[in-house]
Amino acid sequence: MPPLCTNNIYRLMLECWNEEANKRPSFQKIVERKILDNHKRFGISDKYLSVKDWQATGKDEISIKAKERFRVHSMEKNRWLVSKVDVTGGDVIRGYVPCDYLVREKSLEEQSWFSDVYRAEAETLLLSQPNGSFLVRPRIDSLYCLSGKDKWLM
């Protein structure tokens, strides 16, 4: 094994050199494995939470309910292959779900005060809340924006 090469990268390199072309990983698979490898290396969880209910429509998909835990195995354009995780951490069922229904565990998006809305929608949401209420939302020209309600300002 080359110096400074991780086991995962070395195995991936060997797979790329496979004599049988159909056993070599596609570029998409290489990217997915590298992303998941980086997540593990930097302590980013490969565990995700569902943010809302979704009903499966295809035979290779699984239905999900909000707040269920999942382990991501591979990522495609708009759906991910996941395993539903039980309370012991074991995999229960495996199938595809839309990627926009999952957020990384311990991420901002899973917090009750995070909302993926525009400024006008944030103001409308906060109008019905007591003073001191707030939400964090994504912003086009920066990472996030804090919107809050005070008796004089919003």
UniProtKB/TrEMBL annotation:
Keywords: Kinase, SH3 domain, Transferase
Molecular function in Gene Ontology: protein kinase activity
Domain SH3: 43-107
Keyword Membrane appears in the UniProt entry: no
Superkingdom, taxonomy of origin: Eukaryota
SUPFAM superfamilies: SH2 domain, SH3-domain
One Pfam family in the UniProt entry: SH2
Protein name as annotated: SH3 domain-containing protein
Organism, as annotated: Aquarana catesbeiana (American bullfrog)
